[in-house]
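We include the entry.

. . .
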Amino acid sequence: MKAPLDLDQLQTFISIADTGSFTRAAEEVHRTQSAVSMQMRRLEERIGKPLFEKDGRTNKLTEEGDRLLSYARRLIYLNRETLAAFDDQRLEGTIRIGTPDDYADRFLPEIMARFSRSNPRVELTVICEPTPGLVEHIKRGNLDLALVTHNDTRGQSEVVRREPLLWVTSANHATHEQEILPMAFGRPNCIWRRAAVDVLDRQNREYRVLFSSFSATVITAAVLSGLAISVLPECALRPGMRVLGEADGFDALPDCRIGIMRGQTSQPEIVDALARHIAESLDNISVPVGEETGSFDFAALAYAKMKRTKANQILPGW
């Protein structure tokens, strides 16, 4: 029987993947560079596959290294969760978190389950609003932490996930073939709406906005009923939707970046713990349900996945 993997080696491996450098990783894990190199040689021997390849001055993950990364993150997370469960000095208190409802639907179950298991004495107060409203709540001190759509002009947020922003229509209707495209968007200050309008204007496509709402449920209902087309991040795809691509006459949209904003808080330890849980949870969450139903446009979705893979190579750890 093979010996178990070494958690210290896995932690160092994650640091190298995130920083792209053995030197910077050595600083993070408080080891010498030669010790880090030795750890990785032993890990490669244990796995039986090469994990890194040089790409200029950076160390890029091989295909086998990329496969190991997701397992390594989960093992390190489970180790922390296990230790926290037996810690008599566990965190306790109340923390206020905000998120748009489309992120809440997809991400909150995983985040809340993991965080509550590790921190059963912490009470979570959750509000769901669009990102602009959450930014204002952070500024006014009404929230300790918010999961938002990152926008460089709205304030600083730590990007923890990057996904393709996609054109979507009903899989059971030909809504996208109408001469004047019916659209369902968020409110006028929605960054996804502005991105979609910019592309449509650049393509000289005629459209009219039939539905405007801050509710993801309303937008999803309009799409699934065949009343309108919209734009959604990959995480918000639902069975019954069809992804539209360039073959359908829709140019690519910019990626959606999901970030964490922190407010002024008297409980920084709890905020730091929750932020870490969110980052680790979002890193482990995969493509949403739907592919197995046959209701997605596979070519367009495969293109979206390709974009995300390339983004992950450029921005390791997202």
Notes: Residues 16 and 24 are 8 Å apart (CA to CA).
